Amino acid sequence: MPKSRPPGRAAPPPGRRDDRSQRAPAPRAEARPGQGAKPAPRDAAPARRTPEADRGPARPAGASEPKRPVPRPLGPRRAAETIGVMLETEGWDAYQLLDSGEGAKLERYGALTVVRPEPQAMYPRRLPEAAWAAAGAAFTGDVEEEGPGRWRLADGIGDSWEMAVMGIPFACRLTSFRHVGVFPEQVAHWTYMADRLRALSATRTERPQLLNLFGYTGLASLIAASAGADVTHVDASKKSVAWGRENQALAGLDAAPIRWIVDDAVTFAEREVRRGRQYDGILLDPPRFGRGPDGEVWDLTEDLPHMLDLVRRILKPGPSFLVLTAYAIRASFLSIHELTADLLGDRPGTIRSGELVLRETGLPGQPGRRLSTSMFTRFEGEAP
Ligand SMILES: C[S@@+](CC[C@H](N)C(=O)[O-])C[C@H]1O[C@@H](n2cnc3c(N)ncnc32)[C@H](O)[C@@H]1O
């Protein structure tokens, strides 16, 4: 488990950091706004608990004190719960996952076919080698530099091009973090979000308010604005926000009500709590590690509870929604499922895949929570 990075320490090398974060400026040694010595306003999250003030529950040896306030109080659960849902995106006219396997994936983004690393793809490839070799760009990651230098390009291939998602044209670019400006699997969330926003608009006159935290190149913000929302887009990277504005112009949505904000997501959410602002929908797609514009450290495992505590304060009661994505997981049970299905799937039987979960003992009247420990695949053979 990676340790949190206090401000001032170097970011982990590209192979180790979450792969969806953009390069961020060097940290400054100052405290994050809202965490300093100033007294917290009444509606702010509770002040940080110190070991002197409240030693709290025993922590295992080596476990650090929480850097953020621990969210409290937790009410009894009323929401229905469904687990093990697979939200699947099949691709569309401009995007296809053509093949995967042997640690890589072959995808088509508009006119360009690209090869990128994919540790989940442990199984053999299905397309012939020639299909992979014909890709216009392949991420090599073999040099430490910004821009397309970490890609091997076929003759005549440029490092930026256009494609569209859900009717929104946007600019793709070969970035040094192996991404191209869109995460196609997010279409499952964006379709849901657009449906929710339209449903909200249909029931009232004022436009729904959507907050896109860690918003990257702004595609979700553009789709939300097209679906009738007033959008607040927050990202720490000036470059990403500039890319978002460029996409807004490309999509002909210059007049759409989008506030583009370069800020640390936690700092911004803390400010919204103090201002008493609330949203009908919140998208939260944090990287594993990231940096705010003033060097604020984002570490998903350390910071997500506090962030969700802020989010619950700025999410309107009633028919609002939150979409949280975490790419911190290094492997999915689908990887071992596909591998098992490739190797044993020709026999009669059943393959079941999922996660092995420990259940807490719980409290009187409240079932224990689930703790995921690992993923599994079961193959149960049958007599032919
Ligand atoms: C995983 S991407 C989000 C992708 C986006 N939701 C989409 O699918 O198009 C993560 C983004 O978080 C931003 N980021 C990293 N650390 C941040 C921080 N502390 N505050 C705000 N944004 C941050 C990065 O600049 C990057 O654009």
Question: Which helices and strands, and how do they pair?
Answer:
Elements: E1 95-101, E2 104-109, E3 112-117, H1 129-133, E4 137-139, E5 151-153, E6 160-165, E7 168-173, H2 187-202, E8 209-213, H3 219-226, E9 230-235, H4 238-250, E10 258-262, H5 265-275, E11 281-284, E12 289-291, E13 297-299, H6 300-314, E14 321-324, H7 333-344, E15 349-359, E16 370-381
Parallel strand pairs: 3-4, 8-9, 8-11, 9-10, 11-14
Antiparallel strand pairs: 1-2, 2-3, 4-5, 6-7, 12-13, 15-16
The structure holds S-adenosylmethionine.
The site of S-adenosylmethionine (SAM) has 25 residues, from α3, β9 and β12.
Question: How would you portray this structure in words?
Answer:
This protein is an alpha/beta fold. Among the domains are: 95-173, Golgi alpha-mannosidase II (Immunoglobulin-like), CATH 2.60.40; 207-324, Vaccinia Virus protein VP39 (Rossmann fold, 3-Layer(aba) Sandwich), CATH 3.40.50.150; 333-381, no CATH class. Helices cover 21% and strands 23% of the residues. It is built from seven helices and 16 strands. The longest helix is centred in the middle third of the chain and has 16 residues, at 187-202. The site of S-adenosylmethionine (SAM) has 25 residues, from helix 3, strand 9 and strand 12.
